[in-house]
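Prompt: May I have another protein with tokenized structure?
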Amino acid sequence: MGEQSLSQPFPHPLSPSPPASAAATPPATALAVSASASRPKKKPRSSGSNPAPKKPRLVPSVRGRPLSADGEVDAAIRHLRAADPALAPVIDAHDPPSFHCPHPPFHSLVRSVLYQQLAFKAAASVYSRFIALVGGEAGVLPDAVLALSAEQLRQIGVSARKASYLHDLARKYASGILSDDNIVAMDDRSLAAMLTMVNGIGAWSVHMFMIFSLARPDVLPSADLGIRKGVQMLYGLEDVPRPSQMEKLCERWRPYRSVAAWYMWRLIESKAAQTAGAMPVVPPAMPAPSEEFMLQQHQQQHHHQHQQQQQQAAIQMLDPVQMLPGLG
């Protein structure tokens, strides 16, 4: 999911000096007196009773309220309607989103690793066996994950690579590098930097985690294909915008880009469903059809099957709520 800003030129802080002929050259003695008078006097050092003032501490910027807070989604929708009228029809076509995750951060991160690159049903099966292995959802803790061997995880369908990802995450928790408390307290940029240090957790996973587990209000997964296609449809763009263009295109959605991103996924999903519903029905076979008709019918069937496969793949690819059920 960098910020862009317009830089304005600043005037030079020094005005031009007057020409040399405009000023008379003062006597040398006057220069010496003037220099000594303008030189600041040194203050005597104190005996230690009044120490030098400390430098002010840098206060981190205040984050917005989480989307799980009462009334925050409604506030986001009101803002998005006013800031971007193009979103109003999309908002009207869907029920408001809900951002409530029942699991603590470590649990959600474990689930996101387990669900990576798997079909929904296969991932759900692996996850249920993992939960049984640790003794229930309450047992999804760093020490419990570290106690599982790669062989135990392999037996429930977790690859050796994913097992190493889980162990790396659990080690960072056990060593104190990460904790649920500091994850909740970190600002978005610091959190992204820390979580991407964990093997197997990339920027996309971090963005999904921020939106659906932490309910952060202003996260833009700018590399997500679904959101980029949604922006293309919303604004009638000729091409799918590049990730580097997304910040500027979606600037008006601040400080609720997470909610707008959710609506982009819904927009793509609804368009895919409309395409499937609008597909013409294959005409029934007629008595003694000609070879030309049979060829045309076969081509239509093949085209429609291909469209349906593309639609299902698109919905699964573009719906992070389905792909990451542990995060929302």
